[in-house]
C-alpha cells in the first residue's frame, strides 16, 4: 500500500516523460494522448521552468498573471523529483527505469562512487575498489573529462531522444539553454538532437526562442530557464525572492506568447516543485545511518542507500527507526513494484539503492561532511510529495 502522502507518477499517462512524445505526435499528425489541443499547430515551444511546482505557482498566483491566464493542467514529474532525472525523462520520453538516471547522485556499475549526471563526474573523494557489495568495484576516476571518455553519454543512453526523432521527421529542432549545457554529458545522453542556441539572459532566451520557432516548415523548440530553482534552493520556495523571480518568469512567458505566430503554441512546464526544509538529519554525525552502508546516492529528500551484502533489511530497519514516521523507508524491490521508476531494466535496477528513504514532511537527510553546500540549502526536492511531484502544464496559442 502506498502512503497517502505519496503521489506516484503515472508513467505512460500524465508524466513529464509523456510530454514531448505527445508534442511530436501533434506535429506529425498522430494521436494526442495528453489532450494538448495542437490541431493546426506547426510550431511548438516547450519552455521548462526549473523548480516551478504546480502547488507553488497556485500559492503565488498574484505574481504570475500570464501563467495563471493560460489553459491549465498538471503533470507529474518523475521519481525522484529532481532535475537530472526529470530532464532525462523529458528528452527521452522514457521513465527513469529505462533511461537509467535515477537520482541527483546516481550509482554507476563499475564505480565505487555515484555520478552527478548534471556535471557528468563522480561525486566526492576517490576511494578504493569495493568488494562484491552493491554497485562498486573497479574504476574511480574523478575528472569530468575522464568520465566522459569512460562513461560515454551516448553509450550510457543509446536510444534516440525525442529531439532526434523529431529532426528525423523533418522538423526543425532547436534547444535554447545556457552555453555550458551544449556539450554536457547530460545533454549528450538525453537531450541531444537538432541545433543548440545558447542564451545568456532572460531577454536573450525570449529572442532566441522566438527566432527558433520561425525555422523551417515545422519547428520544435525546447527552452530552459534555471533561476527560479536556484532561488528556491538558496532562499527557500516560500521567500520573497522566489516570488519576485516568479514575476520574472511570468514576464518571459508573456513575451514569448505575445510573439507566437498563428500556427504556433507555447507549452510551459517544469521538472519538479520544491519544499522548505525545516528539519535535518545528518548522516555524517549519526552513526546508526552509516552502519553496514557502503554508499549513499540520491539527494536529501530521496536517498539511495547501498548496504553491505546481506544487511539491507537491517539497514532499512535502522534508517526507519532513526528517521521516524515522517520518512518512508523501503527496499529496492518494493520501490520497483510500486512503480516509482516505471518499468525497470535489469541494469538500471542494480543502480537503485538497496534501501530508499523518502522525506514525507519538511525533513531532509543531509551529509554535512560529504555534501556541505547541498546540506546548507533551504529548499529541496526529490521525494514524492505533491509539492515536489506536481508540475504545471500551461498552454498558449498564437
UniProtKB/TrEMBL annotation:
- InterPro entries the record matches: Alkaline_phosphatase_core_sf, Phosphodiest/P_Trfase
Composition skew (Gly residues), residue ranges: 125-137
What range does the record give for the signal peptide?
Answer: none
Q: Gene3D superfamilies under this entry? A: Alkaline Phosphatase, subunit A (3.40.720.10)
Region spans: Disordered: 122-146
PANTHER family (alphabetical): BIS(5'-ADENOSYL)-TRIPHOSPHATASE, ECTONUCLEOTIDE PYROPHOSPHATASE/PHOSPHODIESTERASE
Protein's name according to its UniProt entry: Alkaline phosphatase family protein
Q: Which organism is it from?
A: Rhodococcoides corynebacterioides
